[in-house]
Amino acid sequence: MAILGAIIKSAIDLKGSFTSETDPVKEQEEVLKQLLEKASATAFGTYYGFEQILQSDDIQKAFSEAIPYYDYIKMRDMWWSRTEKGLKNITWPGKPSYFALSSGTTGKSSKRIPVTDEMITAIRDAGIQQVSALSNFDLPSDFFEKEIMMLGSSTDLQERDEFLEGEISGISASNIPFWFQGYYKPGEDISKIDDWDERVQTIAERAKTWDIGALSGIPSWMELMMKKVIEYHKADSIHDVWPNLQVYTSGGVAFQPYEKSFRKLLNKEVTVIDTYLASEGFIAFQQRPDTTSMKLVTDNGIYFEFVPFKPEYINEDGSISQEAPSIPLSEVKKDQDYVLIMSSVSGAWRYIIGDTIAFTDIERAEIKITGRTKFFLNVVGSQLSVNKMDTALRELEQQFDIEIPEFTLAAVKIKDEFYHHWYLGTEASIDAEQLSSALDEALKGANKNYKVARSKALKGVKVTTVAPDVFYEWNAKSKKKGGQVKMARVMNEEKFAEWEDFVKG
Length: 505
Fold this sequence. Notes:
Blueprint: H1 3-18, H2 24-39, H3 43-47, H4 50-54, H5 59-66, H6 72-84, E1 98-102, E2 111-115, H7 117-132, E3 147-151, E4 158-160, E5 163-166, H8 168-174, E6 184-185, H9 188-191, H10 196-206, E7 212-217, H11 219-232, E8 247-251, H12 259-263, E9 271-278, E10 281-285, E11 294-296, E12 302-308, E13 337-344, E14 351-361, E15 366-372, H13 386-400, E16 406-414, E17 417-425, H14 432-446, H15 448-454, E18 458-466, H16 468-477, H17 493-504
Parallel strand pairs: 1-5, 3-6, 3-7, 7-8, 8-9, 17-18
Antiparallel strand pairs: 1-2, 4-5, 9-10, 10-11, 11-15, 12-13, 13-14, 14-15, 16-17
Pfam families: GH3, GH3_C, GH3_M
Organism: Cochleicola gelatinilyticus
Protein name: GH3 auxin-responsive promoter
């Protein structure tokens, strides 16, 4: 047994044994108080009367009543644009060191989200919490001296005026603590390669010089990297190259749609641990092995609110009505979809991140990601969320013994009748009519509103299959290859026309 690994494992186990049970509700109350106190003298805090809110008998209620919801455009236009110009103390004391670039799902110009030193510290502390949680997983001591392959965006951050900017995975990797440098692969030099294909090619060439025990990154790009490594070394599986690979830490998107195709690249079981790291902060991580849900980081720089995800609260563009009610953590219910609202040490206030979540364990504050507000398809009352779409596609995978890691769809009108046109990313050759019929039935079973819509104005389902690589090249076209991309699961008419032209080309 490796001595170093045994020491590290013992230290993690010891820390876990001394970690007392926490109260997420009280932690959130304290975080909100700290955020308001810290930012009370900023332009934002003065404008919205943070000092007065802090004097309230119910700070959470006073906070939600005093401040409207902010999406990125509203936050940028009213506040962050001043920060970009070099002004300080706008939404957070001082100035941020970084701006995280996030193209989201629109393919338009990148969002520029401030990342303060306090947020860097919060992300690092949440990472340490996640490492400590490894004591709950049955991992051998020698795992803790293996190397970790972290596949994110380039760490070669760009200077823009007085700030550095890049994607959040690149910013985080460029701030890795010194004691972790020896474990981190592909290392600083390769991580700075901006061209994703060149970076992956270099990883493939050097792969056998590393003893990788864990992988960390977005599933779609991780799959492509592993395929490249396997192909370069003429191997049958990734374990032929990295025999000690035991853990995969997923992030950015839900792992379940990719699980079947991902595991085909392995010849041993690996422990999959889900992580929820967004441009706005480290939101949640999987804390224990007997669930795929993730624990909200409730004690570390982010205050959460939750808006019930109901059609009457969601505008056509995916934004939230200002009349939509929000609730704190103390009032959430299990298995109900909520729009996630954040306030943070980066100076985001009542910020709509765009994701929807559901609680699977309220006492532990454990959640699962259920979709995106912009990916809610409610044409002619179908009320399809990404979660329901994924459920139906997993049923198709099982029924036809195929993999469907990617998809997108739109509501289309054919001869004055509405259809849902799906593009499924799969290598399988299954008759499109068969898939259409099976998908239609699976959706009826997953969502009663869809079933009602199918009996009325929604006339049917059309399926077109394309190779999964088409989706990755579409993202590359938008300069997002290898980045923190969330593929647009639902497209509007204009974007869907662009997509179809791209597929035909």
